[in-house]
Amino acid sequence: MALPGHRLLILTDMAQSPRPLVTQLAAAAGGGPFGVVVREKHLPVAERRDLTGHITEALAGSGCEVLVADPRWPVEACHLSVHRPVPTPRPRVVGRSAHAGDPPPGDVDYLTFSPVHASTSKPGYGPATGVVGLAAACRSTLLPVYALGGIETPERAERARHAGAHGVAVMGVIMRAPDPAATVRALRAAVG
């Protein structure tokens, strides 16, 4: 089993970013290393692969790790939606999305559990489980769990860790940040 090397995962959404996505992520890396899950599933495969390459280049030497959501090409690390099969050949790191009531999968290295709180990025997505639901999810599996959904503040990130989460996964709080490095720095400090 392999894990992303960080307790902070950033999920991309170029529509929320005030700057080009690559620029926003490069700025975020000024706050310290994190894992980044390249989503942008609306793009054609070739464009998404190229975007992933540009992100990888921009983050080279920063200590950040790039994962691809539901990849359509061979990758080193990926994050899968709930029912997507693990790719062949198997990437070094494989994560999966999970929600309240989902049976814990045995074919991956880590999970994101959502939504913990109401999500600004996905309004109406839920219901939110709160930290009580997160704690139950963490106890239900031996896999490391990243809390996702409404983790908009360092305080929420810290509460997620106290509830048993290995780390936190965020989207909008970084994608919309005017100073993404400061936001990354604060979240990294909160999750240890």
UniProtKB/TrEMBL annotation:
A single cellular component GO annotation: cytoplasm
PANTHER family referenced in this protein's UniProt entry, alphabetically: THIAMINE-PHOSPHATE PYROPHOSPHORYLASE, THIAMINE-PHOSPHATE SYNTHASE
Classification via CDD domains: TMP_TenI
This protein's record includes keyword Hydrolase: no
Name this polypeptide is given: Thiamine-phosphate pyrophosphorylase/hydroxymethylpyrimidine kinase/phosphomethylpyrimidine kinase/thiamine-phosphate diphosphorylase
Keyword Kinase applies: yes
Gene Ontology biological-process annotations: thiamine biosynthetic process
Top-level lineage group: Bacteria
Domain Thiamine phosphate synthase/TenI residues, every copy: 107-172
Alphabetized UniProt keyword annotations: Kinase, Thiamine biosynthesis, Transferase
Annotated source species: Stackebrandtia albiflava
UniProt-recorded Gene Ontology molecular function terms: kinase activity; thiamine-phosphate diphosphorylase activity
Task of the protein: Condenses 4-methyl-5-(beta-hydroxyethyl)thiazole monophosphate (THZ-P) and 2-methyl-4-amino-5-hydroxymethyl pyrimidine pyrophosphate (HMP-PP) to form thiamine monophosphate (TMP).
Pathway the protein contributes to: Cofactor biosynthesis; thiamine diphosphate biosynthesis
